[in-house]
Amino acid sequence: MRPQVIIIGRPNVGKSTLFNRLVGKKLALVDDQPGVTRDRRFGDASLLGLDFTIVDTAGWEDLDPETLPGRMRQQTEASLIGADVALFVIDARAGVTPLDEEIARYLRSSRVPIVLMANKAEGRSGDPGIYDAFALGFGEPVAFSAEHGQGLADLFEALRPHLEPKQAEEDEDADEAGEDEEEFDPESVLKLAIVGRPNAGKSTLINKLLGENRLLTGPEAGITRDSIAIDWQWFDPEREGYRPVRLIDTAGMRKKAQVTEKLEKMSVADARHAIDFAEVVVLTLDATRGLEHQDLKIASMVLEEGRALMIAINKWDVAEDPSGLFQGIRKALDDGLAQVRGVPLLAISGRTGKGLDDLLKAAFEIRAAWSKRVPTAALNRWFDDALAANPPPAPGGKRIKLRYITQAKTRPPGFVLFGTRLDELPESYRRYLINGIRRELGFDAVPIRLTLRSPKNPFATKK
């Protein structure tokens, strides 16, 4: 395990900007308004040869634990458990505030080493705040500008005494592991994104899988803003062993017309980005609301991106007329997702844990179908049988010749069909071939791409 460095501070002092600076990517959402970050976000950081895990946290606020900001603070407090260093960030231009002093008192009671950072220290406007920061009792603050990258060398010097010994231990462990590291192939990790409308129970579902309150939850819609990736090991009861999973929680997706605020637009864009990097996407439905038009739009978007799709009806423990609800959703999905019929549909409860093992099992199975490659000989045997059972039409009395088919790619499966006059091949026949590939060759309900390719006419007039 890499050493872990936690970023802590009150809202809007630049914690997420610092996080993005250290990981070298714009992973965390950043905006001028306070309170953008709500869940912990982990990233791999490297600073002048120091490699560590950096953790962005929600802004520290002094409010009732039952409120949303209060629950966010509890998540931040939990992040200190297991941390090797805490970066306590203040706003140098605003100076030390009473809330900064309260955070300092809390941090002094912990056993985690503290590095004080005076952010937004570019120019001379931050000098008074830097001098005030000495009074917090953590020694000389690191003058820093996360926006402009100033002060990286000073931050390195402040972190080095705490991280270098940890990094040396990690290197020794890696040497001792030797060949065992090869068993942890990144390609074997199931990248599983959880998507859906706001308040469908996505974060509660992930917390139940993890067995801890890792993500912020509550009755308020739209709590999750960043797409949060969590590496986890699922115990497969059939194999009696653990299988690696990367769980990705995403922000709720409302109808486009209802998304007017800049921050929500950023959150939805981040969720779409998470779908691009997932292998399997679980669309969660709220059993108390059933299937809505927005759910079908999200499902269509997932399929258009070429991801393997599953539907999970969440909150099944409070569903009314469960049998009727399930059958109604099944029929609506088959009617509304004509491009892929038979998408896996499961009933689960993120609160009680019902159906979660079945969900993970089905996710691994559909990923296997999504990654499958059919031998060319078997593919063309199926192709010959399909043509014999239903020959292509002959528009205008002229035959459309379909010569052969090959699989060009996987993840998602992509096929290329070769023949002549393919521009006149009806869409209905194209669907017939795609459905046959899916049904006869074991691709189940995964999206399939079929490209039509005709040879160039050597006698065509050249211009």
From TrEMBL:
GTP 2 binds at residues 196-203, 249-253, 314-317. Residues 166-186 are annotated as: Disordered. Residues 169-186 have a biased composition (Acidic residues). Gene3D superfamilies: 3.30.300.20, P-loop containing nucleotide triphosphate hydrolases. Residues 3-167, 190-371 form the EngA-type G domain. GO terms for molecular function: GTP binding. One of its GO terms (biological process) is ribosome biogenesis. SUPFAM superfamilies: P-loop containing nucleoside triphosphate hydrolases. Keywords: GTP-binding, Nucleotide-binding, Repeat, Ribosome biogenesis. Coiled coil: none annotated. Belongs to the TRAFAC class TrmE-Era-EngA-EngB-Septin-like GTPase superfamily. EngA (Der) GTPase family. Associates with the 50S ribosomal subunit. GTPase that plays an essential role in the late steps of ribosome biogenesis. This is GTPase Der. The gene is der.
